[in-house]
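Task 17 of the worksheet. Students: predict the tertiary structure of the chain below and write it out as structure tokens. Keep your answer in the requested format; marks are given for formatting as well as content.
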Amino acid sequence: MKNIKLFVIGVVVFFLAACKDFLEENPASFVSEDQYYNNESDALNAINAVYFHLNTQSVQSPYNTLFNTGMNMAGDDEDPGPGATNPDVRSLSVLAHSSSNLRVYEIWQQHYAAIKKANVVLDKVPDITFTNESNKARILGEAKFLRALFYFNLVRLFGDVPLITEYQNYVDPSAYEIERAPSVAVYAQIETDLTEAAEVLPNAYSSPDEGRATAGAAKALLAKVYLIKASLPLKLTAHYEQAITKAEEVLSPADGGSGAYNYDLFEDYSHVFLPAYKNGIEHVFSAQFKANANNQGNSENPRAIYTSIPGLSGSYAHMVRYYTEGNDNYFSIYKLYKPDDKRRDVTFVRSFTSPTNGRKYGLPLQNPAVAQDSTPFWHKWWDPDNTAVSRESAANVTIIRYSEVLLIHAEAENEVNGPTLKAYKSLNRVRARAGLPDLTQGLTKDQFRDSVYLERRLELSYEYQRWFDLIREKDAAGNGILIKSLHKVGKTNAAEKHYLYPIPQTEIDNNPLLTQNPGWN
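Model answer:
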């Protein structure tokens, strides 16, 4: 991928990117808007500025800690550890937050900052003359893909949101006051953006552009959009058929699809996360990280590492959520994995080896129900080549990968046709890689749905997916699972209002056309 460098247009701060390396940052001088957007290099810098919002360390960006501190910790799998001392994080983790919560505001602000930059690309780049017009089309497709991704996150979290699709450069301050658009209108724009992006984006990139949005990524994300529209809260169930169709356009022929993108599962689950295998056969789209390059590493990594280990820098800010299951008061997602599930010991470690003295360090649990029980630590963003400065992990964060496309396909097929052979095949592909036996025919539709839900939870844990699943999944009666799932793990504050995040109070104060979500006034 190509580097992202800081640039400024008027009063808006952007990031310029050199063509040789997608992730490096260097500040540039102030330039006026009329002086910019003159050539292909300017266009490339502008689109790289949109990618910047996926992964920057300069603020908590969505896929570099913000989705954990501002979303995952509210769920049933994670908690703030001893190193997470921010009161906004800790209140959100027990669902005692308000519309003034800083992390909720940052999620809103970061997404709209990225959308604004995508709109700049879509407004300015068409007027630039390119030597190769396909490169212009590609950059515009990337902007549409990224705008769709950011709106997809917003509409799932906040429901109706302002839908801004043009570059805002108004003189009148009141022109920035925009009311919330119905969520169906936001979804319609997401579908349009992804459909148009898929028509112009390439199937793959060569070095140094690996990691940019592709046609396969646009179709995969669109399949997920259709699945979510068919789920709670919209329940537009006709979209299950579209989710099947679009997923099969991504699936490789060996998996019953027509995709020409050469996607497949890594044979070894650990290869999904290890930096040595980034942008490989399973990676449909990921947030890109780079070690030892001006603070462009994955700073989520040290937050899961236990403190005071010689040679390692860890804050232990993120930990599993413990709850009572039977007579075990230290049950957690770790114990939902079967002992022979190969994903368990990739997702977690029970101890860390000091690179200084070679000793192992862990944290025993005083748990009478399970002898020798010990603390599981999240481990997906571990970089074995950057242990001393763990915040410089080069591990990418997966946003959508091939195993999820298989699970989308299995779930949608089951909802339309019941647990067919196609549905079993897609689900069992994921289970087989985990070392688990195939599920055999005979499950009811409800049983198969629950099996897919569990597989998603285990396959995608710690990948910023769980909260989104909690607010859309249903039980056999068609009721949402959020409240009962959170009550089960002791988060008794969970209530109906938590299906949506509050609109940040700062935004309401600045925009009189905004209204608050139910229960948050």
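Marker's comment: The longest strand covers residues 27-31. Confidence is low (pLDDT under 50) at residues 1-21, 23-29.
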